Structure formats: C-alpha cells, structure tokens
Amino acid sequence: MIPNAFAFERVNTVEAALDRLGADGEAKLLAGGHSLLPLMKMRLSSPSKLIDISGIDALRGVRREEGRIIIGALTPHREVAVHPLVQAHLPALAQAAAQIGDLQVRNRGTLGGNLAHADPSSDLPAVALAYDAELTVVTAEGSELLPVDGFFLAPLTTAMPEGGILTQVSFVIPPEGAHSVYEKYSHPASGYAVVGVAAVVALTSGRVSHIRVGITGAGDAAYRATAVEEALLDQVWSRERVQAASRHADENGGIGEDLFASEAYRRHLCQVYTRRALERLG
Fold first, then answer.
1. Which of the 8 DSSP states describes residue 236?
2. Short-list 168, 32, 149, 154, CA closest to 100
3. Mind giving me the DSSP string for 64-79?
4. How far is CA 160 from the centre of its chain?
5. pTM of the model
6. Is 137 helix (H, G, I), strand (E, B) or coil?
7. What is the pLDDT of residues 79-113, one digit of tens each?
8. Which of 78, 231, 263, 268 could pair with 106 as two cysteines, CB 3.0-4.6 Å apart?
9. Separation of alpha carbons 96 and 120, rounded Å
10. Distance between CA atoms of 215 and 249, rounded to whole angstroms?
11. What is the distance between the alpha carbons of residues 258 and 260, in angstroms, rounded to a whole number?
C-alpha cells in the first residue's frame, strides 16, 4: 500500500498552518498521523500536501479553568490517560484514552486528531458528548466555539469549517459528587469500539440530578442517548429503573451493521453496555 505523491512542510505556529491551508485547498494537517496515514496508504485520501503541526507546543497540555478541563488538541492519548486533572475530574476520559490502540498509538495519537477525524468506532466522541465538550476552532476569520452536540455528522465528517484548525477541547467538570465511567465492547481484531458507552451521573438525595450518556461505535456517528437520560433524570435511582431506561439506548442514533455485527446485535449491545455503565455508577 503506497500513497500518491505529496509535498510535505513542517510549521511551528497556528498562523503558519492557517496560511498554508489557505494557499492549498487540497492540503491536510498531520498531527499524530495514525488516522490520516492509513487512509493515504489505501488511497482513500490523497492530499497534495501534508502540513505537519506536531511541533506546535502551544497546542499541548492540560489545565483547569473555572468549571472546565481544557486540553490542547495535540495532547497525546497517553498524557490524557495519566494526567492527574483528567483522572480526578474526567475519569471516563482517562479510561477511554487508555484503551485507544496500542502503546505507540497512545504515545503519538492526539486528542484533537481523534475527534476531528470522527471515526464512527472511535472511543473519544462518546466521552466528549458525556462531558458536554466544546471545541475551539481557528480559521483565517478568527476563533469560534463548536458544541460537541452536532459536531459528529457522519463517518469521517464533522461540522469543522473548511480550512479550520482544532486547537483545544474544553470538557465540563461534572457536578460535585458525580461519577463517570466508560464501558466498551472492543472488536477482537482492531480494538475499535463495536459499542462504547460513556456515562456521567450525579445523585442528590437519591434522585438523579445530572446524567449524560454518550454512545459510539453503533452507527455512522456518536450520539447522546437522550431517551435514557430523560427516563432517569429526577427519578429515584434503582436497579430496576436503570434496567428499564437502558432499553432506550439505541433510540437516538442511526444503528448500523457490518460483517462483524448486525444491526440487531448492535442495538442489543447498546442496551447491555449502557446498563453496565450505569450500574457501575449507582
């Protein structure tokens, strides 16, 4: 598998990257490379130029600002998985990042690249939905915030503006006392999510005061399982209610099928793994 010929340029600032993207509409950004390069080898993507942004240090790091954890788009998965702020406030994100690919992928692959690539079987979109993430995107016209709801549109398709660069991702810290978890049924060969469920739950006096459920792997794009959330919000937490609510887990997304899992099987997995995730939080 050999890609088509392409030019290569390394840049050290976001401004330089924007300039190069504006000059060549067929150019692509290269961060970790673990999503783009396989597509190029299979000639499913044939950019005229690769613009290497991996050296832009300003796009790395994890910090807390008020009620959010903000992570630079070029922060590697391994750093996300082990960072104390992530483990303390966004444990489902730490769990998901620790399950991505193998050691080499986690050391080189990036948070921003993963979300911008929008693989329908990727782990992180479900977690981003569960933590009400916002994505900061910079274009030649300026900077804008994109809510994660509505960001994932279809396989490898997002609401990113043309010529935009994802610079950071902001995750809402859940309410005091909330718990979160990521449950995943992995494809035995690839490790991608056949179905992955990220859940965040807070209880107040035994009632559900906050709940988010994000599901990935089931169809063309990750989605919020709002039917599950609505069935549990303001309700007294119980095993029976969790089981009943989990039966709605497949209602809000377009469920797909492939050679490994039929649509019916994926619907079943959505329900089972949503129940498992929620039961871990009760």
1. B
2. 32
3. EETTEEEEETT-BHHH
4. 14
5. 0.95
6. strand
7. 999 999 999 999 999 999 999 988 899 999 999 99
8. 78
9. 15
10. 8
11. 5
